[in-house]
Design a protein that fits this description.
FAD/NAD(P)-binding domain; D-Amino Acid Oxidase, Chain A, domain 2; 3 domains; 25% strand; globular; 399 residues; binds flavin-adenine dinucleotide; 19 strands; alpha/beta
């Protein structure tokens, strides 16, 4: 790697900004380009407890990350359950989160440019990057430009529509204390309502090709109206979200001679939940660590050891999660019922939302808690007919 030129990072979202900060703190010269810098990127902005544990500076931002402790799950048929999350989710405005991470990068010594990269070309052992204003030389390129960028195809095969979700959403003025997740009939995805410090981020996601953005938008607007949200003053957005299939993860190319991809550019998003912020930050950390160790090619192995098995498993079970059946009823209906009826199952859900229950250990834990879940579930089922409608029973917050 020719070291007379800096490392160039294309994209200053969470992945690019964190990688830049770590590389600069490790003594490397880094130049970072983002066409918008801190902006309200379409996103829920939810950070799990696992993310806050891994990056404690994000937990120390005071009220910037709105800590939400209560969650309502709504099944496709309308069963509702509210439960207390033992570890709150921190919900950030992306303008704030990106700003915070970019400031950290600047503080570590990263040279930050608000410019759009329009071309990346190989020149000898290094790179030339072009913007509408200027040309830059780099020894290494880190692509952190998110899911919607034209460079992925230059480094590896373009992302297939089968590996994407479409999303639509609104940033709505006002406040709500409750995080809500509504699962849907016939859509591999869900509606979310994420309360932020000074507004609400509500959205809907579905598999690309299965449903159009216009249909998602209509379904979301109907749901928001039925659930008491008003759209006056709200801002609409739509965006894509990587949701890789198992086979795509199998052949994933994330680095090569003089380059690497991190975050959404590399497709590192949980195909069930759409969680990408943790993986953006962690892939940035692993990639920067490999570069600082002088072994950039180790990045792929580090991802393979820690990140990819979990994402591959999520990709494998995603269809069963959204479309599968358990004892003749949809898996989603069963999940909501069990959350309402069983304290042991609620603990499991709470840990899943905290990001501290991995998919790999999920089956073993389910077997372990099965007797308790069955006893608690049976007791709950016997109570239902005497306690009014299922909906009102489920809507009771057991805490
Ligand atoms: C609707 C929606 C809701 C989501 N909700 C959540 C959630 O609640 N929790 C969660 O964990 N994840 C969520 N995600 C996923 C999360 O938003 C992404 O995983 C995360 O933003 C990835 O970070 P990144 O840094 O890789 O990319 P991005 O955040 O997309 O950042 C890429 C940056 O690159 C810049 N850029 C792009 N092209 C160029 C160029 N040519 N030149 C210069 N700059 C460029 C952009 O301006 C941008 O700032 C959601 C995604 C969507 C679409």
């Amino acid at each position: 790697m020719p070291t007379e030129h800096p490392i160039a990072i294309v994209g200053g979202g969470p992945a690019g900004a964190l990688a830049g900060a770590q590389l600069a703190a490790g003594g490397r010269e880094v130049v970072l380009f983002d066409e918008k810098l801190a902006w309200e990127k379409p996103c829920g902005g939810g950070l799990t407890h696992k993310t806050l544990q891994q990056y404690p500076f994000l937990a120390e931002t005071g009220s910037e990350g709105n800590l939400v402790e209560h969650c309502e799950l709504i099944s496709p048929s309308g069963q509702r359950v509210r439960f207390h999350m033992q570890h709150p989710v921190a919900i950030f405005s992306r303008r704030v989160l990106n700003g915070l991470l970019l400031e950290r990068a600047r503080g570590a010594g990263v040279e930050v440019h608000q410019e759009r990269i329009t071309r990346i070309e190989r020149t000898g052992g290094g790179w030339q990057l072009r913007t509408p204003q200027a040309e830059y030389r780099a020894s290494y390129v880190m692509l952190a430009a998110g899911a919607r960028n034209s460079f992925c195809a230059q480094f590896r095969a373009p992302i297939s529509p089968h590996d994407l979700m479409v999303t639509a959403g609104y940033f709505i003025p006002g406040r709500t204390p409750l995080m809500q997740i509504q699962f849907l009939k016939g859509i591999t995805g869900y509606i979310w309502v994420f309360p932020r410090a000074d507004h609400v981020s509500a959205g809907i996601a579905g598999k690309m090709g299965e449903v159009s953005t216009a249909d998602l938008r209509r379904a979301l607007e109907r749901w928001l109206e039925e659930n008491g949200f008003r759209l006056e003053g709200a801002n609409f957005y739509s965006h894509i979200l990587p949701s890789f299939r198992t086979e795509t993860f199998e052949t994933l190319k994330v680095c090569g001679e003089g380059w690497a991809m991190i975050g959404d550019s590399a497709g590192l998003v949980d195909p069930i939940t759409g969680e990408g912020l943790y993986y953006a930050l962690r892939s940035a950390e692993l990639c920067a660590g490999a570069l600082l160790a002088g072994r950039p090619e180790d990045y792929r192995n580090l991802l393979e050891e820690e990140v990819l098995p979990e994402l591959r498993l999520a990709a494998r079970v995603s269809h069963r999660f959204y479309r599968g059946e358990i004892f003749g009823d949809s898996a989603l209906e069963r999940m909501v019922s069990l959350t309402a009826q069983s304290a042991s199952f609620r603990d499991l859900m709470s840990d899943l939302f905290a990001g501290i229950q991995s998919y790999r250990d999920l089956r073993a834990r389910l077997y372990r808690i099965l007797p308790a879940v069955m006893t608690e579930g049976l007791a709950g089922t016997l109570r239902w007919p005497w306690n009014g409608s299922v909906g009102s029973e489920l809507a009771t917050d057991p805490e």
